[in-house]
Each structure stands twice: as structure tokens, then as C-alpha cells.
Task: structure prediction
Amino acid sequence: MRENALSIVMLSAFLVFLALHSFFGWHSHNDGLREYGIAPLGYPSYLASGHFIESVFENWESEFLQMAGYVLLTSYLVQRGSSESKPEGQHDRPEDYREHARPDSPRPVHTGGLPLVLYRNSLSLALFLIFAGSFIGHLLGGTAEYNREQALQSGAAPVGAWEFLRTSEFWFQSMQNWQSEFLAVGALILLSIVLRQHGSPESKPVTAPHAMTGG
Result:
């Protein structure tokens, strides 16, 4: 428990907030149905509804895009004085290369070739794949919810996922989250130049000068 406390706490908080998200979303959704004189959904039915699926994946999409972009961009770009940046002038670490492998290094390092190429970029690749899956989940859930709202409001015929992808509604939903995620990361990068958090690896040491780059 102690050695995995950080991930346990973060994932436990995720599950708690996801449960609360679904609970309050269920009540909010049913309030909207009652306004149209439609019988409310049961909780299991709500979990399979476009309203819930769209709201979940719309947020996951932006979070994983932000993290994937952050991991990849910090490989190449620097911010002088930020704890979130690698030091200026440092392009690659010697430990990133196969010739510095140790007996206990991961297997792809010893294998070389394509397995090593993929492993060298596996973190950003995994995050981009989760982003892609969340993007599809948002699109499918959003299509179902868009069709439900259109049917209630105007009786319009349903559209397919491709048609919904080309609507301003879909991209409005995406952009309102994407912009906030990159703002938050940008703020962390800049604030970490002059501000500190005692004991956190995301902060420079309290006594470090503002001009020092990296943690």
C-alpha cells in the first residue's frame, strides 16, 4: 500500500468522482426528460445512454490529448527556469541509449530493432491511443445524445457519427475542453519557475534560484 499509495489514491478518487458524476448526471438527465413528459430512465439504462457516455469520453479525450502532447513536447522543447522542463542544452540522456543498458533493463532494450523503437516512444503512444479511443467514445456517445435532443426538440431524423463529426456542436464540445487542458499545463510550466511546493517532485527545491531549469 505504501509503495503504491500515489496511484491508489488517484485511482480511488477517480472512481469516487466517476460514481458521483454518473449519479448527478442521472438526476439531471431525468429532470430534462420530465420537462418533456417522458418517463425517467433507471440508473443502469442511464449508464448506457449517450448523455453519460458523451460526458465521460468528452473529458477523457481532452485529458489524454493534453498528457500525450505534454510528454511528447517536453522531449524536444524547453522552458527556461521551469521545473517541468528538461535542462537547457540537454537533448538526450545517455541512459536512453541501448549501449547503456543494464542487466535489469526492460526486455525491448536488449532486443533492439522495432521493439526498442516502439518502447522508446511507448508512453506517448499509449496516451495518444487512449486519446483516440476516448475521441471515438465521445463521437459515438455524442451522436446518440445529439439525435435524442434533435428528436425531442424538432422531430428531426437521426444522423450518423460521420454527420455529427462535421457539426459545430461536436467541435464546440471538444474545443471547450482542449483549450482548458493546455491552459492548465501552460500555467503549471510557467508558475513552477517562481513558485514552489515543498516535497513535490513537480517543484524545484525551495532554495533553487528562479533561473534553474528542471527539477
Q: What stands out?
A: The mean pLDDT is 93. The longest helix spans residues 122-153.
